[in-house]
Amino acid sequence: MKLLEDRIREDGQVLGADVLKVDNFLNHQIDPDLMMALGEEFHRRFADAPITKILTVESSGIAPALAAGMAFHVPVVFARKHKSLTLKDNLYTATVYSFTKKTSNEISISKKFLSADDNVLIIDDFLANGQAVEGLIEIIGQAQATLSGVGIVIEKTFQKGRQLLDERQIHVESLARIAAFENGQVVFAPEA
Amino acid sequence: MKLLEDRIREDGQVLGADVLKVDNFLNHQIDPDLMMALGEEFHRRFADAPITKILTVESSGIAPALAAGMAFHVPVVFARKHKSLTLKDNLYTATVYSFTKKTSNEISISKKFLSADDNVLIIDDFLANGQAVEGLIEIIGQAQATLSGVGIVIEKTFQKGRQLLDERQIHVESLARIAAFENGQVVFAPEA
């Protein structure tokens, strides 16, 4: 998506070998007009799927997920992160390992908000190693809901997340795909 | 706001003497169409203020703040919560006490995203004892930015937050004002 690639080129900050900081429009300061455009683009790309619910993880997934929810006119549910859970009654939970922080978090959603009748679109800000998306897919499985697809704002094609999802034949749409960082610049991969 | 009061009557769950659970449309599952309507209502109520930025706290403030940002077409910044911070360089921070959880959290925002040129509208999901809003006001003070007003989705008039803001002559707009819970039912206060 050219609008997003342009914005990443203009405002993204490449840190080291594999980190892209986009905290000025996506995950700390948020550009609402850009979010609206991303939401409409997700809607266009998953127009044929009978989506009943959008699922994401707090906090930085909430903005793109809400924008998508506005385009689809379906509820958005965000999984909560916890260090560890003692009360698991009425919750679906999964463990998510963060390669960046080298810690595990449990994510959970209330059983009230996901059922076997749901067709779920997962939305997240980044796809790198795919751990957060895998956790959400596990929760969808627990609820016996149907996974209709995964919509990602920024994918890093050089990390293993996309491959894991492709192997399971999941419909993935990433609005920007980063192939590499070269000399502090972002090199985009073709859309796929 | 009648649309919101109706929704609280229909879907809100009164727990004990002073807790209203609205996790099926506001802070766990989110109704995007309702958020859009709330955002437009905030815009209408603060139409005369020269807002340049919307400020909230993760996670449950993000959805109404983003919806307001879409109506104002200005950036939204959400403060992050931390147990305690070691690295405070380039951050504005404030300590927020939670009466519900009986713990203190630090909230922070990057100095990049708030400056003396900003006219800030604070948006949050609940106003009860006002601790989160006070923390955000402290951060706005550190940045020497101007506070233009505070927009709240649900205010509990019987807790002290509103009074604290009124005493400081801050322009507060709450879209639903709860005066009491009686026999498990919500009693609304007139708008003010």
UniProtKB/TrEMBL annotation, chains A, B:
Protein's pathway: Purine metabolism; XMP biosynthesis via salvage pathway; XMP from xanthine: step 1/1
Binding site residues for xanthine: L20, N27, K156
The reaction(s) this protein catalyses: XMP + diphosphate = xanthine + 5-phospho-alpha-D-ribose 1-diphosphate
GO BP annotations, alphabetical order: purine ribonucleoside salvage; xanthine metabolic process; XMP salvage
GO cellular component term, pick one: cytoplasm
Broadest EC class assigned to this enzyme: transferase
SUPFAM superfamilies registered for this protein in UniProt: PRTase-like
Residues that hold 5-phospho-alpha-D-ribose 1-diphosphate according to the record: A128, N129, G130, Q131, A132
InterPro entries: PRTase-like (IPR029057), PRTase_dom (IPR000836), Pur/Pyrimidine_PRTase (IPR050118), Xanthine_PRibTrfase (IPR010079)
Domain Phosphoribosyltransferase: 26-154
EC number: 2.4.2.22
Signal peptide stretch: none
Gene3D superfamilies noted in UniProt: 3.40.50.2020
CDD domains in the cross-refs: PRTases_typeI (cd06223)
Keyword Cytoplasm (UniProt): yes
Primary location recorded for the protein, binned into one broad class: cytoplasm
Subunit structure: Homodimer.
Role of this protein: Converts the preformed base xanthine, a product of nucleic acid breakdown, to xanthosine 5'-monophosphate (XMP), so it can be reused for RNA or DNA synthesis.
Family: Belongs to the purine/pyrimidine phosphoribosyltransferase family. Xpt subfamily.
Name of this chain's protein: Xanthine phosphoribosyltransferase
Organism of origin: Lacticaseibacillus brantae DSM 23927
